[in-house]
Amino acid sequence: MAIAAKTEAELADAVRGSNGPMRIVGGGTRSIGHVGPAEVLETSGLSGVTLYEPGALTLVAGAGTPLAEVEALLASEGQRLPFEVPDMRGLLGGTGASTLGGVVAANASGPRRVQVGACRDSLIGVRFIDGTGTVIKNGGRVMKNVTGYDLVKLMAGSHGTLGVLTEISFKLLPVPAAAMTLILNGLDDFRAVAAMSAALASPFEVSGAAHWPGSGTFFRIEGFAASVAYRAGQLADLLADFGPMTREDDTANRWANIRDVSLFHGRNGDVWRVSVKPSDAPVIAARSGAEAVAYDWGGGLIWMLMAPGSDLRAGLGPFSGHATRVRSGPADGIAAFQPEAPALSTLTKALRAKFDPRGILNPGLM
User: Fold this and answer.
1) String of b and e for 228-263 (b: at least 16 CB within 10 Å)?
2) pTM for the structure as a whole
3) For residue 188, is it within any domain?
4) Are residues 249 and 280 in the same domain?
């Protein structure tokens, strides 16, 4: 049975009156892991933009608002969400429409994270329902620092385990006038990470740095046309020792494919997302036994395609970072999320006891 709430009050009533586990669903395009038997609470009915001020670069919308609707509205004003939201449907096999709530719950962030930060860094306010059915608001229409819990940041990436989002406020950015991608070919993983690290440490404002073994190493520069041309030339000179660069002016498809990990679309196997120090990435990838790998965020993010049922964490052993199994088959006892260190686990349990004392929101997911 599914409960399709159309208002915040209905959602609060549903949570307050629940007698058991609840699985929170927006568009259903970013679901990972296994919650187990639970009543489904759908949030897609909480849809609509309630405030858009292009001059103030601010947007407020219901958590169930389709991402595509928001992106179209912003594009009409030459603006965008800063953090380049990945479309996970091709990777996970979903067919629904991504919602803003799902984006925030997953802290979904694409290649531009290396320059502008993650989804949580563009959040300026949230409203949500906690596990007792209480409406909580934090933040607002402007960025400001306050004492106490930063619930805006806390909700991003919590995957619905601390509360059910109902309304979200974002800061926005203008769409740049021009973009260019520079490409190095023939680099092994170690040389590619070295080149990406040099590019990201440079003053040339690289907004994307990715490496697909066998396909190329890619660097994106965005901004005013004259600035893009100048910085591209300077970056090519900086990386001259890594080989000749080619230039690509039509960057949209290239970075959409990197953002959405299209390299793995239509291929069988489990998909893992590994966050590490870029300097560690080639070694971790070599130890993984992965069938295919792709690097983003200058090497700080490794996507790995593994044989079904592979326990990547067990195979790697201890390492500095964390691994998330994004796509898998039926529940097999391998946790989707990296097990937490004891001190962090204690803190997490305390937070959940505070915001979801009955333990009913997406139990067992994280």
Assistant:
1) beebbeebbebbeebeebeeeeebeebbebbbbbbb
2) 0.93
3) yes
4) no
